[in-house]
Structure formats: structure tokens, C-alpha cells
Amino acid sequence: MAKQGESKESKPSEKGITVKKSEDISEWYSQVVLKAGVADYAPVKGCMVIRPLGYAIWMRIQEHFNKVLEKYGVENAYFPMFVPESFFKREAEHAEGFSPEVAWIERKDSSEERLALRPTSEAIMYDSYSKWIRSWRDLPLKINQWCNIVRWETNAVKLFLRSREFLWQEGHCVYETEKECIKEADDYIKEYKSLCESLLAMPVKIGRKTDSEKFAGAVFTNTMEGLMPDGKASQLGTTHHLGQNFSKAFDIQFLGKDSEKHYPFQNSWGFSTRLIGSMIMLHSDDKGLVLPPRVAPTQVVIIPIFREEAREKVLAEAEKLKKALSGLKVRIDQRESMTPGWKFNEWELKGIPVRIELGMRDLESHTFVACRRDTGEKQSYNISEAKQKVSELLDNIQASLFKKAKDSIDARTKKTSNFIEMVQEINQGKWVEVPFCGEKPCEADIREKTEGITSRVITGNISKEHGEASCINCSKKAKHFVIFSKAY
Question: Do the Cβ atoms of 378 and 348 come closer than 8 Å?
């Protein structure tokens, strides 16, 4: 695969996808993202440009999740992207955890405090919280921001999946009691799961992270993990119970109903544009992008087919059909410089869920032809039933994409208590649920022995009711069932 900055990636010369997903998924993925016009490599090393199609998908995700935020009473705000160095040092574990990824602004005036570009916003937001929160009446405080994040990755950029700058949402909430704090940390990961499965048609696993993999400074971390076609896991979202660690570090206190001062409990949670890359990798095929209808910026494209003498009549009927499909996201491709066949291929590449072909023969029979992007199946429908039939078709495509993905992931999800078998299954493109002790040294040993296999999510606790089990690596008493795999 060409590297960032080479002409092959920044200016693709061939229109279609030239490699198969099953043969070289890395090169295939890059070609799909670039040639479908979702994103491009930036002239700045390690960064990406999100093109209008990619940003429109992100906006659809935002629209969906802003309704969730409203349901929970979370308000959107915005905080500076510059974080004073002293702020990081207030929570030691947090500072240590993020230190390898922090990008610092170097200034000639050494008398000023060094500033970081935010790798996450706990530090900059909680300083404000310490000023805003005074009484139990100020709680709960629930704020979210949609913003950019900078983490100084040393690995090569992989569009949407790994880059130095990316977009995300991050929620930061403060509560009077630990009970309500934990409840909502658990609620938000369930909302993330709903977003992935209902909007993006991506099946996911949710649960706690192990202590080795939890967020720096958290009491515990919930995670949402997806299994990609190449067998690697993609962490798609996390929620963190921060306890009182940050409220004590940033001196956030409130006067309680008992007239005593207390430290509140906090959680934080976020997902990023990685959702877009994972969705593309999961659903797309050798023809290009495949978009689930509910997240597609354009759900239906109408392609008029005519000879010059019938031009006005066919275009007029195409407009009528578009109006009949009101409520759906529809566009008419009226470009005259391209043939219908060229347009078919382009819209396939861009992943539009339904393509409608409308010509004189269709008008004479009061029908239109609809083609599904996911399967390529074509069917003729009566124009009088357009809204009902196309809506049903879009719903069917959404459900079919989810089922296909779920069946594939279920088939590649294995269980074992044997270490060698676990490694073999993971090397064959699966993720594997195993009994695990949960201890950090043991997990570090697994990572070292297997050259990068890590725990992804705790799927359940081991109790005497279900019979005891030994850790797959150290043979100590296992505490959890945990999915291990390679990961992005």
C-alpha cells in the first residue's frame, strides 16, 4: 500500500476498487475511503481530511446522539483545546497514562506555562467545574462537547481508525451520589450500543474493561467493542466511572443537604469518528462503500435515462417521483456529461443504499426499477406505491446489513480454556472468550508472549454457581470471562 503523501493515495488514478477485501483488507479499505470520497490524507503527517461525504455521515451520527443527550438532560458546550501542563499533574494516574500521546506547544517565551493540545478534556473542564459547583442544588451537572482531539500517534495514519487528530464527543457529568453516577455510566454504554446497532448496523459487545485496559484515573471503564472482518477488534466507545479521583484532584466540592462539604462523583464518556471507519470496514465490498440507510446522507439516487427528445418528460417525472418519496433523503443525478452506466458505477462506489432507474419504458408502464446496493438485486415497482415500497426496501437493507454482520461475528466468536487454542483461533481472524484472573502482570505476560494480543471486554464474572475455572495463562483462579483478540 502506498504511504501517506504518495500520489496513489492523494490522487487515485483508477475509479474502481482494484483489490479484493478478502485478499488485502488494508489496501482495500484505503481505496474505499479515498475513492468513495469519504476522507483523504492531509499534508500534515498523521492527519486526515474528512471530505463532505464523511462529514455528512458524522453529522447524521451527531443528530442521532444529540437526541439521546437531550433525553438525559445533557447540554452541549465547548471548552478550549489548550490545556495548561499543571492541570495534567493534578491527577497523577491520568497524567502518566496520557503522557506518551500528549502534543505540546513549544513557545519561545519560557516564562509562560507549557500548553498541551487536548488528548481528552477532563483537566480543562474540571477546573471550570470547581468554580461552577457550590451546592447540591448545582447537581447533577451534565455537559457534552463535540470537538477535535489530538493524540500524537507514532503509527502510520489509517483513515478514521488511527490518526493524530480526530473528532469525537465527550460527556462529563457530576453527581451527588455514587449510585446515580455509576447508573448513568452504565446507561451511556447501552446508548452507544443502541446507536451502533440501530443506526450503523454494527453488532457490538459491551462490558467492563480489565484493570490493565481501563481509562487512566478511572475506577472502572465500560467499553464497546466491534470485531472487524480481518479479526481485529475496534474499540468503538467507552464510559468511565471516575469516582472522586478527579473531584479531589481539582477541588470540586459542594455543600450538601447536611450543610457539610462533600466531593461529588463523576463519569466521562465518548465515541469518535472511528465509528465511521469501522462501519465502512464492516459493511463495504469490492465495489466500494456500502452505507446503512439510516446513516446514509443520501438514501436514494434517481438516475433518469433518456434520449434527447424525451429529456424534459423524463426529468419532470423524476421530480414527481422525488416528491412522492418525501421524508427520504433523495437526489436526482441530472448530469448530462456521464452515461447512465458511469453513474451506476459511481453511486455504487459511494454506497448509496437504493438506486432508482427511470426511463421512457418505465413511464409508459407507470413503474420504476430499484436496485439494492447491498445485494445488487433489481426489482420493478409501480410508481403509485413508490413511498411505501422504497421505505420498505430501505428498512430491509438496514436489517439485512445488521444480520449479515452479526452472523459473521457470531461465527468468528469462540470460547476456550486452552492458551494455545486461543492464540491459534485469534491468528485465524477470531476473537476468543477465555477464563482470566484479571491481574495486570498476567495480562502483560499474555501481550508479550503473543506479540500484541490484548483483552477487549469482560463478558461475565465467574462464580461458584457456574463452577470455578483457572486462568488461561497463569492457572490461578479465574475471576472473569474475557474476550481477547488483536486490535486496532
Answer: no
Burial of 111 (0-12, 13-18, 19+ CB in 10 A): exposed
In a shared domain, residues 268 and 323: no
Cell of 273: 469518528
pLDDT for the residue 92: 65
Burial (CB < 10 A; 0-12, 13-18, 19+), residue 212, is: middle
Which residues span the domain enclosing 334? Answer: 300-393
- The residue from 250, 283, 316 where one domain ends is 283
CATH code, domain with 347: 3.40.50.800
pTM of the model: 0.93
Helices 274-283, 52-72: inter-axial angle, 10-degree rounding: 110
φ and ψ at 127, to 5 degrees?
-65, -40
> What's the confidence (pLDDT) of residue 87?
87
Query: Residue 236: its pLDDT value, please?
Result: 98
Q: Distances in Å between the alpha carbon of 275 and those of 61, 116, 119, 381, 391?
A: 9, 26, 18, 34, 25
CA–CA distance, 481 with 461 (Å, rounded to integer): 6
